[in-house]
Design goal:
Largest sheet of chain C: 2 strands, antiparallel
CATH topology of one domain in chain B: Alpha-Beta Plaits
Number of helices of chain C: 13
Strand content of chain C: under 5%
Helix content of chain B: 25-40%
Order of helices and strands of chain B: HHHEHEEHEHH
Strand content of chain B: 5-15%
Chains: A mainly alpha (184), B alpha+beta (203), C mainly alpha (331)
Bound molecules: iron/sulfur cluster
Distance between the termini of chain B: 46 Å
Oligomer: heterotrimer
Order of helices and strands of chain C: HHHEEHHHHHHHHHH
Number of strands of chain C: 2
Strand order of the largest sheet of chain C: 1-2
Structural class of chain B: alpha+beta
Shape of chain C: globular
Number of strands of chain B: 4
Number of helices of chain B: 7
Radius of gyration of chain C: 20 Å
Helix content of chain C: 55-70%
Chain lengths: 184, 203, 331
């Protein structure tokens, strides 16, 4: 009973939030509803007793959206509406809608035909966290490690790109410039 | 030390000491060494200790203001007072108008008339305290030590004319005994008698 | 069973809400008094005996003040931001076992609203979301000081979340569970079993990161008066500002409970002191520590904050995790 009510409530909330994200012209609205939608999604994990994934969803996406906020803060005035130069065409709406529909259909077919089966069913002896760990480190070990290495590469690349002039102090430089100006 | 001496003791330099500043580290290794040294020194804990000891000692310095008040310096430039002559009780002001003239915010207004002896006395003496900046020029210029500063520093009032009328500032006749000489701006120095020289006859 | 469970949960939620709102108010009084004594002052003295009713006066003031929303602000987000801070602060408490189990009239009460097996992660994650409050408030205010406060919130959140997670990882590895009750039971055998002796570095790192997460003084850049007026809260007044305040103090209590549960033996009996009182003493010590540090230490600059996080705390935390792993593997 509770599960059903909660499921439909959070489903509706999530969809509304993401619709706002897509349609809003104000960056602040868009991002806030994105963050809210991400957090509402975690509710589904909690409803499915996948506490660990739910919490990870919260932690990862709150951090990720926070980074988005930081970019928005740097690039635009978030209290104003963004004026778009080329209004989106109808065909774009139509095509993206069709793609979404197709995706839903593709994912629905195994469920409708009852061919879907839990490969690693929940058991009471192993907790949630351990279950995730077992799957990650047995079946998906190679993809997991490859993803880790790719993230490491991306991190190093990011550090190198960003750190070219990191040891220069901007404030000290300004001080020097002022001194030079004073000497002239 | 109490009262006036405390205010007059301007010799604060005796407690100065020079802070030792170590040279700023240049190389990364020196910087690293400094970070390690500073993090392992118990500076932060010493800070905590000081505040905790202060709390336990309970050495409170609060003055609970409306109930308790700090003594103000006798030279404090508060709300003005008009003084009287000590023997006769006559007003000291001779209506010369110097204070009115010198006041830089132009807030003194006096009105005078000759009294029955032919002396000039002020009939009106008002200071607009909305404009007065308590600079003390009026007290300094007054030749009779008549207009001086008092000790009053709670200026807030409901009416503009509060404190500002002649009857507010003038020492009441029955309080003449309690009238104190003002040692601040314009008053003769304590050693004035000694410092003064006889005018030579050659003038 | 179902109805009993629902009623019990609702009662627990109401108790936690009421108790911690009241405690937050009381903590402000304690903070003012302790700060005052440490600075040789008396603190509030006029409202009630020794100023004890000052909390009440402040409450009345906050409730009756005009709820002001500036013209340039983004209204809905401006209005919802303080609610996020206060709500997440209380939601985080849902997964914290506050006291040992006790029985009233034959009915066993477990003083935890939701016993999930990833309680620790849940608390940290929800507390992290709490920082969305300042962020949204700052960005929606249409005020440059608020915006600076919001920017500082973003960097502080993004960097200190890392330190919190990494520092708490080592104890998690030792205990082998993310449930706070397991943490408590692991340390059941007296003072010698406390995790702080096994993980002193993680303890200190977690405490430092806790100061940053609750934005208490050495790291209170979000609302440092001398630099950014009041940071994200510049435009707020009345009860909306009060919600930020309650959220901050509730977070202080949460961090106090977390540190006591993870590192200091939780609600196990301590010598002759029963467990419930023992954990209260620990939590109040940490509240005192927060205030104490505020009285003693200056706050750091934003660049020093980042330097401290990425060049000092994070490497230490990583090394700590690696060493813990090696030790656990070979011994
Ligand atoms: S107060 Fe002094 S300066 Fe002013 S009019 Fe009287 S005597 Fe002259
Ligand atoms: S103190 Fe200065 S400003 Fe005030 S009345 Fe005297 S001369 Fe004027």
């Amino acid at each position: 009973m509770f599960e059903v009510v909660a499921f439909y409530l959070f489903a509706a909330l999530t969809i509304v939030m993401f619709v706002i994200t897509v349609t809003s012209k104000n960056a602040l609205y868009a991002m806030s509803s994105l963050a809210a939608g991400m957090i509402f999604i975690s509710a589904f994990f909690f409803l499915l007793d996948a506490d660990f994934l739910g919490v990870v969803q919260i932690i990862v996406y709150s951090g990720a959206v926070m980074a988005l906020y930081a970019f928005a803060m740097m690039f635009m005035d978030t209290t104003k509406e963004v004026k778009e130069n080329n209004p989106p065409k109808k065909i774009v709406f139509f095509l993206s809608g069709m793609i979404a529909l197709l995706l839903v259909l593709i994912l629905l077919t195994p469920i409708i035909s009852d061919k879907v089966k839990a490969l690693y069913p929940m058991s009471d002896e192993i907790g949630n966290t351990e279950a995730v760990g077992i799957v990650l480190f047995t079946k998906y070990l190679v993809p997991f490690e490859v993803a880790a290495i790719m993230l490491l590469v991306a991190m190093i690349a990011g550090i190198i790109l960003a750190s070219k002039r990191m040891d220069e102090s901007i404030t000290l430089k300004i001080d020097q410039e002022i001194e030079q100006k004073g000497a002239e | 030390m109490s009262g006036l001496e405390q205010f007059q003791d301007r010799n604060v330099s005796q407690n100065y000491y020079r802070v030792k500043i170590e040279p700023y580290p240049k190389t990364p290794w020196e910087k690293f060494k400094r970070v390690v040294r500073k993090s392992l020194k118990p500076d932060l804990l010493i800070g905590l200790k000081i505040t905790l000891l202060e709390m336990l000692r309970f050495n409170i310095h609060t003055i609970q203001y409306p109930k308790e008040k700090l003594p103000v310096s006798p030279r404090f430039r508060g709300i003005h007072r008009l003084l009287r002559l000590l023997e006769s009780g006559n007003e000291r002001c001779i209506g010369c108008g110097l204070c009115e003239k010198i006041c830089i915010s132009n807030c003194i207004r006096i009105d005078t008339k000759p009294d029955e002896n032919g002396r000039k006395i002020p009939t009106e003496y008002t200071i607009n305290f909305g404009r007065c900046i308590f600079c003390g020029y009026c007290a300094e210029v007054c030749p009779e030590l008549a207009i001086v500063h008092g000790q009053e520093y709670e200026y807030a009032s409901e009416q503009r004319a509060q404190f500002a009328m002649k009857e507010d500032m003038l020492t009441p006749l029955d309080k003449l005994k309690e009238q104190k000489e003002y040692p601040g701006f314009g008053a003769p120095t304590p050693a004035a008698d000694k410092l003064i020289k006889k005018t030579p006859l050659a003038y | 069973m179902e109805t009993a469970f629902i009623i019990e949960t609702i009662v627990k939620i109401l108790v936690v809400l009421g108790l911690f709102s009241a405690l937050a108010g009381f903590a402000t009084y304690v903070e003012r008094k302790v700060l005052a004594f440490m600075q040789r002052r008396l603190g509030p003295m006029h409202v009630g005996p020794y100023g004890i009713l000052q909390v009440l006066a402040d409450g009345i003031k906050l409730f009756t003040k005009e709820d002001f929303i500036p013209q340039g602000a983004v209204r809905p987000i401006f209005m919802i931001a303080p609610v996020i801070t206060a709500a997440t602060a209380f939601i985080a408490m849902a997964a914290i076992p506050m006291f040992p189990e006790f029985t009233i009239g034959g009915y066993t009460v477990r003083p935890i609203i939701s016993d999930m097996n990833v309680g620790l992660l849940f608390v940290l994650g929800v507390m992290g979301i709490g920082l969305y409050g300042p962020l949204l408030a700052g960005m929606a205010s249409g005020n440059k000081w608020s915006l600076l406060g919001a920017a500082r919130t973003a960097i502080q959140f993004l960097s200190y979340e890392v330190v919190t997670g990494l520092s708490v990882l080592a104890p998690v590895m030792i205990v082998g569970s993310l449930s706070l009750i397991d943490f408590n039971n692991y340390q059941a055998g007296g003072v010698g079993n406390w995790l702080v002796w096994k993980q002193p570095i993680a303890f200190i790192l977690f405490l430092i990161a806790g100061f940053a997460e609750t934005n208490r003084t050495p790291f209170d850049l979000l609302e440092h008066e001398a630099e950014v007026i009041s940071g994200y809260a510049t435009e707020y007044s009345g009860m909306r500002w009060g919600l930020f305040f309650i959220g901050e103090y509730a977070n202080m209590f949460t961090i106090g409970f977390l540190v006591s549960l993870i590192f200091l033996g939780g609600f196990n009996d301590l010598w002759f002191i029963p467990g419930a009182i023992a954990i209260l003493l620990k939590v109040f010590f940490f509240i005192f520590l927060f205030i104490w540090a505020r009285a003693s230490w200056p706050h750091v600059r934003p660049d020093q904050l980042m330097w401290l996080c990425w060049k000092v705390l994070m490497p230490i935390a990583v090394v700590n995790v690696v060493i813990t792993g090696i030790v656990m593997m070979f011994f």
